């Protein structure tokens, strides 16, 4: 137990550092989503690991099935997915004090600051570190299949972890967040 405690603490601290994706959705409030029950992928998400793309499509399909939607070749809704990733750079600079001490200041002994006497000095030194990371954005768009009118959009964005296991976890969190309030219901607006 004594050996496993530091490991558990380290895992807890590392998992606390992980960020969950930011999620946003938008929809046409004039659309009655109760009229839709079928969909088809007209563009599946590409631009990432093929295995992660498969997992993403399966996660979206599962969420839509949970809400009573089914895939169909004669669908009412066209679903388009896009993934973009970019390399970002972060530079962190830390200023650390460099404390000095008492010392001789010039021609003679004495107290005080500056030349000619004892003084105390100090300063700062800076340490900079740069790290690169991948930032990803997932966009899911739904269009009415007959009118080609956009009816719904879900977006998730955040840092892409290096580990495939963590990537899968983030993808699932993204899909869960995007579909948390799906299908949307029109909110009565007061004049």
Write the layout of secondary structure elements.
Layout: H1 4-17, E1 22-27, E2 38-43, H2 50-66, E3 70-71, E4 77-103, E5 119-144, E6 150-160, H3 164-178
Parallel strand pairs: 2-3, 2-4
Antiparallel strand pairs: 1-6, 4-5, 5-6
Helix pairs in contact: 2-3
Account of the protein in words:
With 191 residues, this protein is an alpha/beta fold. It is built from three helices and six strands; from the N terminus they run αββαββββα. The protein has a six-stranded mixed β-sheet with strand order 1-6-5-4-2-3. A hairpin with a 5-residue loop joins strand 5 and strand 6 (150-160). Helix 2 (50-66) packs parallel to helix 3 (164-178). The longest helix is centred in the N-terminal third of the chain and has 17 residues, at 50-66. The chain is elongated and about 70 Å long. Mean pLDDT is 81; it is low at 3-17 and 108-112.
Strand order of the largest sheet: 1-6-5-4-2-3
For the biggest sheet, the summary is: 6 strands, mixed
SSE string:
HEEHEEEEH
Protein structure class? alpha/beta
The overall strand count is 6
Proportion of helical residues: 10-25%
Q: What's the mean pLDDT score?
A: 81
Radius of gyration computed on alpha carbons: 28 Å
Distance from first to last alpha carbon = 63 Å
Task: Note the overall shape.
Answer: elongated
Count of DSSP H/I helices: 3
Low-confidence stretches: 3-17, 108-112
* Quaternary assembly: single chain
Beta content comes to 35-45%
Keyword list:
191 residues, alpha/beta, six-stranded mixed beta sheet, 41% strand
